[in-house]
């Protein structure tokens, strides 16, 4: 117990019991609310309140569900007792929270998250997860700690398992930054079956990375609607192969092709093969790209999430 306030309400004594922590991550909130509720039993009439520098919506919900009041330094608060109701919600987040979330979704960390979300029920040992995601043990440890702090994962006897894949994906979508690389708009005379045959041909070239992305990937994963432009991720060798097979020309005739030549090839570890010889970004990556591409893209993303992402809810 860090703070104790005693006062009268309409002639009756009341006590507010406060626990102050340096972190408001859900992992710490969960432990604190149990302690506060137990502590409040020592008083005849008491209201437990948890205080931290910042409390996310998830953390505030944990307090509310446990019957514990809360307050943070951003201005969020909720204290209810004896006919008194105080509640305030602010939209701002501290810079540290924004930095931590952005760090969690950086390319190397994203390789770990994509691997976890591909098999959300699987229990992972740190060494196995690092090998599967092709990152260092340090990267996996950092991601592991961030997921545990936010109550998006739990440690079981055999390793780490996601417990809230939807919450993880929601925050990733809301903090998503497009992949780094050179964006190229081009024209190809190929369309329909001839386009797909040419793309398959490029994908068969040795030593290349090519994957359909965004709407072009969604067409094979969870069809929603076609656009007039095809989207593809590639590395430099993949772009060279695409130029040959698609007979890419100048865009004076109207661009119908958008190629992103990626700086980092980690995404290609997570591609899928929805049809023989045809590779697309995974459902998770496709969802993120669609959600970031505007209103129609968000509609397609929601359709994909409903029909192409399956995990325990």
Q: How would you concisely characterize the structure shown here?
A:
By secondary structure, the protein is α+β, with helices and mostly antiparallel strands. The protein is built from twelve helices and 14 strands.
Commentary on this structure:
- With 313 residues, the chain is an alpha+beta fold.
- It folds into three domains: 3-88, Trna Endonuclease, Chain: A, domain 1 (3-Layer(aba) Sandwich), CATH 3.40.1350; 95-174, Winged helix-like DNA-binding domain superfamily/Winged helix DNA-binding domain (Arc Repressor Mutant, subunit A), CATH 1.10.10; 181-308, Beta Polymerase, domain 2 (2-Layer Sandwich), CATH 3.30.460.
- The chain contains twelve helices and 14 strands.
- It has helices at 26-40, 57-65, 95-104, 107-118, 126-133, 137-149, 165-174, 192-204, 214-221, 236-246, 283-291, 295-308, and strands spanning 3-9, 12-20, 46-52, 69-72, 77-81, 84-88, 153-156, 159-162, 181-186, 210-212, 230-234, 257-262, 272-275, 278-280.
- It is elongated.
- The mean pLDDT is 89.
Q: What attributes characterize this protein structure?
A:
313 residues, alpha+beta, Trna Endonuclease, Chain: A, domain 1, Arc Repressor Mutant, subunit A, Beta Polymerase, domain 2, 3 domains, 12 helices, 14 strands
Helix-residue proportion? 40-55%
How many separate domains make up the residues? Answer: 3
Q: Judging by the overall fold, what is the CATH architecture of the largest domain?
A: 2-Layer Sandwich
**Radius of gyration in whole Å, from Cα?**
25 Å
Taken as a percent bin, the fraction of beta residues is: 15-25%
Cα separation of the termini: 36 Å
* Poorly predicted runs: none
Shape designation: elongated
Mean pLDDT figure:
89
The count of DSSP E runs of length 2 or more, i.e. the number of strands, is 14
**Strands side by side in the biggest sheet:** 1-2-3-4-5-6
Spell out the helices and strands N to C.
EEHEHEEEHHHHEEHEHEHEHEEEHH
Q: What's the tally of helices?
A: 12
CATH class of the largest domain: Alpha Beta
Based on secondary structure, the structural category is alpha+beta
CATH topology of the largest domain: the name is: Beta Polymerase, domain 2
Task: Report the major sheet.
Answer: 6 strands, mixed
- Quaternary structure type: single chain
